[in-house]
Design goal:
CATH class: Alpha Beta
Shape: elongated
Helix content: 10-25%
Bound molecules: zinc ion
Radius of gyration: 17 Å
CATH superfamily: 6-pyruvoyl tetrahydropterin synthase/QueD
Strand order of the largest sheet: 7-3-1-2-8-9
Order of helices and strands: EEHEEEEEHEE
Number of helices: 2
Number of domains: 1
Oligomer: single chain
Largest sheet: 6 strands, mixed
């Protein structure tokens, strides 16, 4: 399933060019595999789509920061979040920032976070065997994450 996305800013710590703050129109897609139920459905795509939309909305027009990167120093966190990366300081309003449980906000890591969220929400779908999440930051730059739901 394609066609969902969000606009967000990020940087990739330790990357010469991409360590500078910039943004993308990210795309998110999910493929679901499994045994169709008596209605011929593996999942209700409307429900899956609303879950993905909720996730995308949570990132949209925000700054995605990697919570687990040791080079990112949190200087202060109040109304504003002040951080330092390799001696360069940034300050952002708290409500503009999303901390992600990743070492860097890369397509690979975002695909993992989205896949984890989708799996968490798939317990209501016993027919799902496998999901594949695709995250794309620009055409041709994407990553996928597979999760087996059943053994
Ligand atoms: Zn980028």
């Amino acid at each position: 399933m394609e066609g969902l996305g969000f606009s967000a800013a990020h940087f990739i710590i330790g990357h010469k060019k991409c360590e500078h703050l910039h943004g993308h129109n990210w795309r998110v897609g999910v493929t679901v595999e499994g045994e169709p139920d008596e209605r011929g459905l593996v999942v209700d795509f409307l429900e899956l789509k609303s879950l993905l939309k909720q996730l995308c909305d949570g990132y949209d027009h925000l700054l995605l920061l990697p919570a687990e990167n040791p080079a990112l120093k949190r200087l202060s966190e109040g109304k504003n979040i002040r951080i330092s990366i390799h001696g360069r300081e940034f300050e952002f309003p708290k409500e503009d920032v999303v901390w992600l449980p990743v070492i860097n906000t890369t397509v690979e890591e975002l695909a993992r976070v989205v896949a984890d969220e989708v799996v968490k929400n798939l317990s209501a779908y016993p027919n799902v065997d496998k999901i594949t999440v695709l995250v794309e930051e620009s055409p041709g730059e994407s990553a996928t994450q597979e999760r087996r739901i059943k053994a």
